[in-house]
Specification:
This protein is α/β, with parallel strands linked by helices. The chain has two domains: about 120 residues, Enolase-like, domain 1 (2-Layer Sandwich), CATH 3.30.390.10; about 240 residues, Alpha-Beta Barrel (TIM Barrel), CATH 3.20.20. The longest helix is centred in the N-terminal third of the chain and has 21 residues. It is globular. It starts with a strand and ends with a strand. The site of calcium ion (CA) has 5 residues, from loops. The site of calcium ion has 5 residues, from loops.
Length: about 400
């Protein structure tokens, strides 16, 4: 089965309101879908992490750099293709955008493999360790508001996320250490013991400021403190993990098995958050998952983007072995963005309807069992939102 074409579709729309995190405000939602076609009429879908102009630049890598390397190759040789592309791109980027671009192609090849076998992705990997997975909601984004307005809104939004049935709520921080502690207290009050809450700093603190916020999180009983310091600051992660009670999480900005080996050996993470659409696709995710488990580091996938990204992550969460296992094992969660996202909610011919299911089931979503990723994008929808 030969690969005949590799196409990127970059989708974009104006959000109903501007949203922010510790690094910037943004007013557009974007998604980068990858379509791989074959001479037997089977098409696979993947997704590359990265918004806006990053997505447009990655489209160039997918179509102009990777496509010529793999045209005519057997679409089922996904591991051979992964290594061929990686080895040819090594001199031009072992991390970052070339690997994000490769991720989308690799995911599409796994979708094809599942469709050929007539099996969902989790069966190809080795089966479902769980039939359903718990879901946490993230929201509580930064806006151009003063601190008091943030505090009131974060408390109300945290309560709303729990009312919707999510098992936990995750907030952004980034106003400054003192102001952020007020936000964390507001979210703890909003959640009010109904579930866990987590804080995502998107690497905005120095180590000493992260200790200041982290000590408040220890008192408030937060579940994890995500990307407290820059991903390159391995010493900072190790010191924070040794000095705080709250779980230190991160890794969404790390790539491939070699990057992950370094952060795992450094012992700075309580919870690893690999991003399959960035760090090398399903092929590399499975190797990194094994590496995390070899270090006894539990994994909760980072999830961002369209229904394609959500679908592949549902399959991977199903196929994740329990670590360390037991009668009442530690369980992963699906990350779910509660802010406006048409590319998740309206992209598919048959939508995933996760929020409805979470609400009805008390926080869970069942694992789909159709072949491959189990999703079919609506081509009219893609045409409507595609930019180039
Ligand atoms: Ca994050």
């Amino acid at each position: 089965m030969k690969i005949t074409r590799v196409t990127s579709h970059v989708l974009q729309y104006d959000l109903p309101e501007e949203l922010g995190y510790s690094q910037q405000f943004y007013a557009k939602r974007s998604a980068h879908l990858v379509e791989v076609e074959t001479d037997e009429g089977i098409t696979g879908w993947g997704e590359c992490f990265g918004p806006g102009n990053v997505a447009l630049a990655n489209k160039g890598i997918v179509e102009k750099v990777i496509q010529p390397m793999i045209l005519g190759d057997d679409a089922l040789d996904r591991d051979v293709i992964w290594h061929k592309v990686y080895n040819l791109l090594r001199d031009h980027g072992q991390k970052g955008m070339p690997i994000q671009a490769l991720s989308g192609v690799d995911i599409a090849l796994w979708d094809i493999a599942g469709k050929v076998a007539g099996l969902p992705l989790h069966k190809l990997i080795g089966g479902a360790h769980r039939k359903r997975v718990q879901v946490y909601g993230y929201g509580m984004m930064l806006k151009r508001e003063n601190v008091d307005e943030h505090v009131a809104r974060f408390r109300a939004e945290a309560a709303e996320i729990m009312d919707k049935g999510f098992v936990a709520a995750k907030m952004k921080s980034g106003l400054g250490p003192k102001e952020d502690v007020r936000l964390c207290e507001a979210v703890a009050r909003g959640v009010d013991g109904r579930g866990k809450f987590m804080v995502d700093a998107n690497h905005c603190y120095t180590t000493s400021d992260a200790f200041y916020v982290g000590r408040a999180l220890d008192e408030l009983g937060a579940y994890w403190f995500e990307e407290p310091v820059a991903p390159e600051d391995l010493d900072g992660y190790r010191e924070l993990r040794a000095g705080l009670k709250v779980n230190i999480s991160g890794g969404e900005a790390e790539f491939n098995r070699w990057g992950w080996r370094q952060i795992l050996e450094n012992r700075g993470l309580d919870i690893a958050q690999p991003e399959v659409c960035a760090m090398g696709g399903v092929s590399e995710y499975l190797r990194v998952l094994t590496l995390c488990h070899a270090h006894f580091t539990p994994v909760i996938n980072h999830v961002w983007g369209s229904a394609i990204a959500v679908a592949v992550n549902l399959q991977l969460l199903a196929a994740m072995p329990p670590l360390p296992g037991g009668l009442n094992p530690w369980e992963p969660m699906l990350e779910f963005d509660t802010t406006d996202n048409k590319f998740r909610d309206a992209l598919l011919v048959e939508p995933l309807r996760i929020q409805e299911e979470v609400c009805a089931s008390g926080g869970f979503v069942t694992i789909p069992d159709r072949p491959g990723l189990g999703v079919e994008p609506d081509r009219d929808f893609i045409a409507k939102y595609e930019v180039d």
